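Cross-check.
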Amino acid sequence: MSQSKSGSGIADRSVTSIPDFTKIREGDSLPEINRRIEMLGEKIDILSSEISELKAAFEELSRLKEFLPLNIRVVEVRETTVEEAKRVILEYCDKYKGEIFYPDDVADELGLDLKTTVEATEELMKEGKVEEG
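Predicted model, tokenized:
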């Protein structure tokens, strides 16, 4: 038995299983065979409906995913001077030597103001202490 989650835009409901009386056996009468065929048709209709609901839910989730951030991180930014930022950025560069990184990532990682990080990075590049990407 399965149930959809609340808040997904799809009504909560349980899937009712249909007993399998549909096997055709030797000696079954034509009315019994027709009744079983009808039951199979009903099962197919139910499954088709559930597949349609699942497709709609998947499409809705796919659309919503575009509007949701992949990662949310709260970064506490500390006030610092450009000189102090240059010092910690150089330490960061030494620690991750050879890797490519961007000022916004460095600012987040080190808890620095982005404007200060960009300014410090530009000064370090002018001084030849860090290279552009």
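Residues 59 and 65 are 10 Å apart (CA to CA). The chain has two domains: 1-68, 82-126. Passed to J.P. for a second look.
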